[in-house]
Amino acid sequence: MKKFEREFNFYENQKNREKSKDTFFKKTEEQRIALTFDDVRLKSGYSKVMPDDVDLESKFSRNIGLKIPIVSAAMDTVTEHQMGIGMALLGGLGVIHKNMSPEEQARRVSKVKYYLNGLIDKPICVRKEQSIAEILKMKKEKEYSFNTFPVIDKKDRLVGILSKNDFDFCKSGSIKAGEAMSKEVITAPKGTKLEKAYEVMFENKKKTLPLVDKDNRLAGIYVFKDVKRIMMENPGGYNVDENGQLVAAAAIGVNDFERLELLIEKKINVVVIDTAHADTESVVQNLKEIKKKYKIDVVVGNVSEPESTKRLIKAGADGIKVGQGPGSICTTRVVAGIGSPQVSAVYKCSKIAQEYGVPVCADGGLKYSGDIPIALGEGAHCVMMGGMLSGTKEAPGDVIFREGRQWKIYRGMGSVGAMEEHKGSRERYRQSSGKKSLVAEGVEGLKPYKGGLSQVMFQYINGLRRGMGYVGAADIAELHRKADFVRISGAGKAESHPHDILITREPPNYPIGD
Fold first, then answer.
1. Considering the entire predicted model, what is its pTM?
2. Sheet strands (E) in 174-318
3. Which fold has domain 34-38+57-115+239-496?
4. 428 an active-site residue?
5. Which is the catalytic residue, given 170, 330, 361, 382?
């Protein structure tokens, strides 16, 4: 009986917390007050959860999962293929921006998809007549990170394999691939499954296994390091799809069908209709058309009101991106006079999305790792970062030296520079009048160089873990249920930060003057 009472009290307490959170936000709504991250803090509670033991798995859309609930923004100073690869390797996701041609964006998506492979169904091949110098030049120009190439003849039949060893021991670049290649190739029939491929490769001590049809034409290739990783159930914690490839995402515009079809050809996992205001007739109609014609998850953004969320979900959205004007480089709210502070926006939109089982991504407004558990606690399934990931090695752009410090350029997609250079930015902010008459909704600037993505993400992920530990939430779903908030004053905000001290050593998770 006592055990039953304890369990009953436990669940009652959880219900009371949820009710308390709803009451908290309802009161602010009634008073026409909207809150952001600096206005609130999570309540701590009884916890049996150790931070290092929490489960961070979540979702970006109905069918696209995340090992960690962090996504990089589709900004031209944040996410291209380097960031997409880095984020997926850490368990998250990168959304490759659309300020480039459809062909170039598809090429960058391909780099993410083929960084790791289970079965490579369309491997990059070379002809036996090509010289080693020509192949190496192609490898450099295409920025291929691999060193193994199937060699085919004029009838597309497999005749050999060129590996790193063959390149290393080649005396002259003028030697043809047919002379330098390894001719004794172990192959398997077209359709060979991964488990069988692993057996064949292990038994023959071969790191590549081409698949061929009955006419010896190449039908795909397995690479041992990737096959082994998949067979070991992804010990690295990478965010991979059912084919063992890194999960990739990309932004598209409204009625951007040429771009969408090229991305689908490259096996994109999810696309984001990326616009500053998604609750428009054109976006709704475009979303319906995409969901009718293609079998792919579509995340739509951005919005900040529950009615907008509901309208997009009913039109077919598989995920909702919330945030209008919270970014550190965004001026939408002061230029256009619209938008809701992010904590209130995410809470209201998440309540509606929860009814339909659709994930919400909190996009923008984050400054510290502690903002992540706040965003997730109010109902988001993941957060999208721009400024917090800008300045990393994987972000696009060169390192700049200025005032004795290293920097990288960071700009809003609604900044003058971004809109002058790219049609994609102009379309995102619904400006079609050309480059000479632009209304900026963002700024351009510099962010301190932060080093490699993995060391930056380590701080963010573990800040989240500690927040969940204080709340007593073992996973994201439990954080949704248990999270409760208090509103803090200006004095409370000041008290939350270091005070009455001259900081002499900047900690890695608390940037000073950033």
1. 0.85
2. 188-189, 208-212, 218-223, 249-252, 270-274, 297-303
3. TIM Barrel (3.20.20)
4. yes
5. 330
